[in-house]
Design goal:
- With about 425 residues, this protein is of the alpha+beta class.
- It has a domain of about 150 residues: Collagenase (Catalytic Domain), CATH 3.40.390.
- It is built from ten helices and 25 strands.
- Strand 18 and strand 19 form a beta hairpin.
- Helix 1 packs across helix 4.
- The longest helix is centred in the first third of the chain and has 21 residues.
- The radius of gyration is 21 Å and the shape is globular.
- The two termini are about 30 Å apart.
- The protein binds 2-acetamido-2-deoxy-beta-D-glucopyranose (6 copies) and zinc ion.
- The site of zinc ion (ZN) has 4 residues, from helix 4.
- Keywords: Signal.
- This is Sequence orphan.
Length: about 425
């Protein structure tokens, strides 16, 4: 009945394995494709060494680089561009743990069947994609469960944590159809793209700059919900709506209502058991809560209708694109508002023919470089510790560590169904 496969179903599984609820994103080009994975709690101390880069000039990223082309010179240049982008992030954020990246530079056109596509009448080209390899459900300091990116969970320094995936960030960049510019190349040509800027942008998505909001029920998007999580036992399933850390800071213009509050109002289906997905979907689509989802969608396709609030900053998100594009809408700074500003980096599109350095200059030569003041404030809200790279002293401008606590997800056997209540949602 519903052509889209949209729900994540978890079978409550035998024995008392204490685990968090983890979702993996194996394909960086399909950000909306998530798989449930087993991630039991781990308390090993050696996994928890505190490396810390409070001392400057340490690259806190651990790059596994797969170069899928034969041009070794180009491979080397791409690798150097990665290292340069990693250093920019290492100078901006205090990491206690290395961030592992699985990055691939290859012909995406061949692997994915198409290089260019038409969006809103404009021919667009895929340059790359990246996202957190794994997200973990954590009870946030406001008592709400949200999916945290693994790279952030690592920095929190809890002794016990859900089993980590080998990589924190999966990234892929297209070797075909784009002419890249590198620092050692001299002047940039009008048709070239500074790959370092693209990499920096994508790594920030990988650190958690990504909403959960999407239409998980229709092929043509017309409503928005956070992740839909189903929990099965023999008599049926319960369904929850759960957002990402990013969504905690979103709110709606002009009412100022928080998206977190809207998600809370939507998440009222978990007390009822549904026989199957269609049963739940049908119920949801005809419920008053569905209006919340369609209202949210109308915000996502109207300019200046969704913001991120962090500290005193208001960041307008990208809500000008029609039709809605799950890869570009919402999870970016508004193009219209942030072009030629110091917060140019997280716009959904970049113009060719300009280097990262030139962008910084066009944005007013922000002292801390390409990671602009609003983005820095937001990364701080997410839970990262931000360093002041403009000053020479090695003090950080923030030492807050989010009070997020790990929630334990209990997997039980269906034969021990009477125990399930002790593992129900908290
Ligand atoms: C770097 O990544 C590789 C591959 O995943 C891993 O084997 C290694 O332990 C990592 N190093 C650190 C310091 O995390
Ligand atoms: C790294 O990413 C590539 C491309 O996304 C994927 O094919 C490969 O399996 C990944 N490697 C590991 C060790 O996960
Ligand atoms: C890691 O070490 C740094 C510097 O010594 C310290 O400021 C930070 O609080 C430590 N973090 C954790 C999670 O232990
Ligand atoms: C689930 O579907 C069945 C028919 O397939 C229907 O009788 C029942 O009322 C539905 N339950 C809910 C809660 O919608
Ligand atoms: C940004 O600045 C450039 C050069 O200063 C100018 O050509 C361009 O029109 C500006 N764009 C916007 C949207 O203001
Ligand atoms: C399945 O879980 C629901 C609560 O979500 C519970 O009321 C019901 O008794 C459980 N059924 C079985 C067979 O365990
Ligand atoms: Zn992006």
């Amino acid at each position: 009945m519903w052509s889209k496969s949209f729900l994540l179903i978890f079978i409550c599984n035998i024995t008392f394995i204490f685990a968090s609820l983890c979702l993996d994103r194996p394909d960086p080009l399909r950000l909306n494709y998530l798989e449930r994975v087993s991630c039991p709690m781990v308390t090993k101390n050696e996994e928890n060494k505190n490396y810390s880069n409070l001392k400057r000039n340490i690259n806190m990223f651990n790059l596994t680089f797969n170069c899928g082309i034969t041009d070794i010179t180009l491979c080397e240049k791409v690798k150097k561009a990665f290292e340069s982008a990693e250093q920019i992030l290492s100078d901006a954020i205090m990491f206690n743990q290395f961030v592992n990246i699985n990055a691939t530079f290859t012909n995406i056109c061949a692997a994915y069947g198409a290089c260019t596509s038409i969006n809103s009448g404009i021919e667009t080209q895929v340059i790359g994609g990246a996202g957190p390899s794994r997200v973990m459900m954590i009870k946030d300091d406001d008592g709400v469960n949200r999916f945290y990116p693994q790279s952030l969970v690592k920095q929190l320094g809890n002794k016990a944590h859900p089993k980590y995936s080998d990589y924190d960030i999966n990234a892929i960049f297209n070797s075909e159809g784009v002419s890249y510019w590198f620092k050692e190349d001299g002047n940039i040509r009008a048709d070239q793209v500074d790959l370092e800027m693209v990499i920096l942008h994508e790594l920030i998505h990988g650190l958690g700059f990504l909403t959960s909001l999407n239409d998980y029920m229709h092929d043509t998007p017309q409503e928005l919900t956070p992740y839909v999580i189903g929990i099965i036992n023999t008599s049926g399933s319960n369904y929850h709506f759960i957002g990402a850390t990013f969504d905690k800071y979103m709110s709606v213009v002009p009412t100022g209502q928080s998206v977190s509050d809207i998600i809370k109002q939507m998440d009222v289906f978990s007390d009822v058991q549904y026989a199957n997905q269609d049963n739940f979907t049908t119920t949801f689509l005809s419920s008053p809560q569905y209006n919340l989802a369609t209202d949210l969608f109308s915000k996502a396709i109207n300019p200046n209708s969704l913001t991120l609030l962090s500290g005193d900053d208001t960041i307008f998100l990208e809500t000008s694109l029609t039709p809605f594009n799950s890869k570009s809408s919402i999870s970016h700074f508004s193009y219209q508002k942030h072009t030629n500003t110091s917060d140019f980096l997280m716009r959904f599109a970049i113009e060719r023919g300009k280097t990262l350095k030139q962008y910084v200059k066009m944005g007013g030569n922000y002292a801390n470089g390409p990671i602009g003041p609003k983005l820095r404030a937001f990364l701080k809200s997410l839970g990262y510790t931000i360093l002041d790279s403009a000053s020479n002293d090695q003090t950080s401008i923030s030492t807050t560590i989010s009070k997020a606590e790990l929630i334990i997800w209990c997997m039980l056997t269906i034969s021990l169904s009477n125990i399930i209540t002790s593992c129900l949602w908290k």
